[in-house]
């Protein structure tokens, strides 16, 4: 929504002119979203991990966020978890850049309007005593769910922490034993400037420690995803979505493994589109082996007779 | 102290800058402050801790307690904690904020001496307290010494019984119970195989998710018993099936089979859409269930086997003309064992325009669908906002013709919301149009179809992955034209925001 300056017609509204001049004209950023840092405790010990949540408040429904946070050199970000985040689809998963900035970007279809929407939970460790600032970089962007991506102005909420030697920080003593949610990967043909490459696309959610990584395996043979030994035998490769498949004929079984922050995993399966040749199954291999065995047996019998 | 106050003052002055409108402000957000002795001016240490009491509680543990210190002087930064020293060591063995401490892992029958000092927030330290000593409880020299207790850690889900075992250095008889600190004679259960140096027994009645702790004591063949417990503890894992059935494949995949074995429904969503419309429920952005609303536009969708946690659900409906509504999102936190019912989900009306550019003076027809007999408020965003109310008919169809003389030339947008009985819907999608000098017929669902990258009539994860592939890549003549939604020569967050607006899941 844009605010336009009204044309002034009458002379005695000169006073109004002064008043109106104070109001910025043609401003298109009508609302502010607030990014807040939400630490678990306000007094923390040095050299021990502590948790800091990053949340968002917005009165206007926003659907896309790219946050850049300048992390001081004396702080280590040990983990950035997306557990229970309002962001369901990551454009950039949280990561630390070479210039020691924490960056993440994602979309929220349907938009989010409200308070304390959880974005990321950081596990941080201070390496030194002193005064340090986490700064929310101005090139961060928050966009409205209005079809025109109206950029929101960003306010940030300051927080004061005391780092003290010898303090025991609160540790979450309940380990995460819950696997990530079930998820359904999809095949997509990516127009890549050439013929187009087939890729598998996936996005899993974890409601506690957050998704840590993904792996993909392509296999001729179908395995039972419930059987941990079969899973362990697959050739897993670290992967990011979209993952361009090695088998562009789509005749392999595709397995995607989502791993959360505590190592629990969930395996999803995508069936091949092109029917794999009949011999590329356990049954097929056994049949071939049997046929070969009988052929050799018959042959050896023949030879044996001939020798006699 | 003065400098500390100055820091606070600067903070108070700077803080309001964060709320100046229009400015993307850059104030410090997270401030971590520690005062060093030279900076802060408190150079008086706390008082020495008094009344240090040490008590040996077991063969390997000594408990300490003392009276709290005070931090005198002005300014006083307060006692931050205590450091504990053992056997005259130069370094503290531990620090604590309370006035008690348990030292564990000690050797039995050994003398240990302790002293404590206090420190304040800027690490001024008091002198050490006087040393107090005690001896840990001794093991009788000819009592059995246990080792190799098993099992430990987590056993697989579904385990109902297991063999518990341990060894002793001399021939003994071992017993086990579930109460700590019981003397050997009072322990109820004897190991099935015992009497030598290897002992084992079967423990049954195990269930998923439990932790079993057994307290074991053994008595030698010369009737000398252990005087402290040997603990054997293990847990049974909870089942979490590590697979999902079904696969994707670009086409409509059915949702995977539920994790909850009892197939209990845990989410029910009820609301109002359009008569006989297809209603889709997305869970965390992906289609989880679809249903058809009744002739009264009411619908109910059920989901079973949803886990615990915070989920973002969205609902959308398709009207008679194939136009999709805006997403109606809501976030719920689910707890296991409970069914969560969300009702009152009133899907906003669909809105479409006859013309994308209308000749000023000609009427602009806005049509859409909502619930039967609903009151639809049609909003035109302009210098002055125009709101007009119309009634939907028995099929929920509604229409309004705007006199375009009420609008200036240029770009405008329109939106609608419905009221039915006492329920109010959320706002519909924003539809843009121009008031110009000639009529240009609107193409159907243009913006939404632009977001459908792979042409499968949905805007979902597959299209998202196509956008993701081109994110931050240089666009060339060979790049697909559709990914740069706002035609600014790159794929960036603005394109993702437009894309997300048209999401269908």
Structural commentary:
- The complex is a heterodimer of chains A (308) and B (505).
- Chain A folds into three domains: 11-164, Sandwich (Immunoglobulin-like); 186-270, no CATH class; 281-308.
- Helix content of chain A is 13%, strand content 43%.
- Chain A is built from three helices and 17 strands.
- Chain A has helices at residues 14-21, 228-233, 282-307, and strands at 32-39, 43-45, 50-70, 75-81, 89-96, 101-126, 132-136, 141-144, 153-157, 159-164, 186-190, 197-201, 211-219, 237-239, 243-244, 253-260, 265-270.
- In chain A, strands 1, 3, 4, 5, 6, 7, 8 and 9 form an eight-stranded mixed sheet that branches. A four-stranded antiparallel sheet of chain A has the order 14-13-16-17, with no helix packed on it.
- The radius of gyration of chain A is 29 Å and the shape is elongated.
- Chain B is mainly beta and 505 residues long.
- Chain B has six domains: 2-29, no CATH class; 53-135, Immunoglobulin-like; 146-236, Immunoglobulin-like (Sandwich), CATH 2.60.40; 265-346, Immunoglobulins (Immunoglobulin-like); 352-444, Immunoglobulins (Immunoglobulin-like), CATH 2.60.40.10; 447-501, Type 1 dockerin domain, CATH 1.10.1330.
- Chain B contains five helices and 33 strands.
- Chain B has helices at residues 2-14, 37-40, 446-450, 461-470, 493-501; strands at 28-33, 53-56, 62-65, 79-86, 94-96, 100-103, 111-120, 132-135, 146-150, 153-155, 162-168, 172-177, 189-190, 198-203, 211-220, 230-236, 265-272, 278-283, 286-292, 298-304, 309-318, 328-334, 340-346, 352-353, 355-359, 363-369, 375-381, 386-391, 397-403, 410-420, 423-424, 431-436, 440-441.
- In chain B, strands 25, 27, 28, 30, 31, 32 and 33 form a seven-stranded mixed sheet that branches. A five-stranded mixed sheet of chain B has the order 10-16-15-12-13, with no helix packed on it. Chain B has a four-stranded antiparallel sheet with strand order 5-4-7-8, with no helix packed on it.
- In chain B, a hairpin with a 2-residue loop joins strand 30 (410-420) and strand 31.
- Chains A and B meet through strand 1, strand 3, strand 6, strand 7 and strand 8 of A and strand 1, strand 4, strand 21, strand 22 and helix 4 of B.
